[in-house]
Each structure stands twice: as structure tokens, then as C-alpha cells.
Amino acid sequence: MTGLYIFNVDQSVSSNFKFINDIKKFYTEKLIVVEEILTKYFFQAQTIENLELENQDLKKFRLLYAEKNLELTKIKDIHVDLQNYKSDLKLAKVLSYVDFDDFTKVWLDVKKTDSKILGLISENYAAGIVVNKGDQALALLNGNEKSNYAVFIGENNAPGITHGNPNSNVLLAKFIPIWINIKVGDEVITSGMDNIFFEGLKVGKVVAIRKMADMQEAKIEPYINALEQNFFYIYSKKVIVKPLTKQTETKPNKKP
After folding, report:
1. CA distance 190 to 182
2. What is the pLDDT of residues 22-65, one digit of tens each?
3. Which CATH class, in words, describes the domain spanning 82-241?
């Protein structure tokens, strides 16, 4: 009887005070909306994180594909029996500056124990080099005086070596042969001749040229500001030498 009485009272209150039902309905609707928003937010956050990881993998394979495609284009009519190349890209995070007064040198979260110079890539662009410093990967970014790697300039593939340009956002390409024609607006790409990068990775465009007696220099406006990046790919390339197959000598058949 008591339960029935309470039920009747609640019905009576509800019928006489309609605003109570409106408040309950408003509260319930808002609670459902908030729950849906929170669920959607956490689902989207997880989805974004998964997509970012997938995107990093896709960038890695895209770069490796570009390298192999260039190699195959150059050797499509040549059979290389003596050597093979193995390439790798490793994602690395910037930990900190080496010196607070030099933004072109940063520590990466990767161990490095050998003396081989490796290439540093951001998106589709060359961003600098990686060296060993106390068994830790040290990145010398574009703009650092010691960030040197081989490049081709323009349609004539004029060779050059990059150098940092202190207090400037442009790079220098030095030691360009004076007899090879280059011009402002020429695109600069990695040549791969130093085995630091593969051929064809974009660096920037020529904005000025300085001619000297026996060589010329080009100022390059890079496509990417490496100083603003928090993640890079470290590119490495190994030459695998295949052993020569010994041909068995055929001995003449002995006559009976």
C-alpha cells in the first residue's frame, strides 16, 4: 500500500508541476548528449593516433619506393651481379638541442655506435645528416656548417656539396664546376654520390649564384625548415657484396 501511495503522489506531483518533468527531461537529454560527445571524442582521439602511426609507415614506404624506383630506372638495362643494396628508414624523435646557442645541432632518441654518416629526411626533403657522438645519434641540420652532402643542381646535374650559411635561412652549394651551366630557379636534389642519401631527394631551389675563377657557388632556399621539425627519418644504405661464383673447370675426357 505504501508503494502505491508514493506512486500516486508522484503522479499527482508530476501532473500538477509540469516544470519538474521538463527539468528531468532537459537534464536527461543533456546527459545523453554529453556522454555521446565524450564517447565520440575518445573514439576520435584513438582513431587519430592510429592514423598518425599508419601515416608514418606510409611515408616510410613511399620514400623507400621512390629510392628503389630511381635505382631501377637507372639500371633497367644493366644486370648487377656483384652487389646489392639494402636500405632502411628509422623514425627518430628530437630530444633536445646540443647547445642552447646553436639550433642546428640536436640529439635524437636513437643509439649510434658506428662512424658512418647517415641522411636525415623530413617528408620528401633532405634535412641534414646524422653522425655518432658518444654512441648517440647527433643530427646536424640544414644550416649547420658541417651538414655536408652531395647534390645535383639543375637539368645539367651540376655536382655540388652543401654547407650551412651562418645567420641565414639559405644553404650554400660549393665546389660546383665552373664549366657547367646553372641558373637561378634550378632545383637542387640529392645526388646519392656520397651514399648518404639516395638520388632524387629534394633540397631546394637556387636563389643566387656566385662565380669564381675555377668554380661557382649557389645559394639555395630549402624546401623545408629543418629547425622546426620534431621528428625525422634516418636513412641508411648498405652495400651487400655477393660472393663470386666459381666456375668449375671442365676436364677433357680421356681417350681409352
Report:
1. 16
2. 665 666 666 666 666 766 666 676 667 666 666 776 676 677 66
3. mainly beta
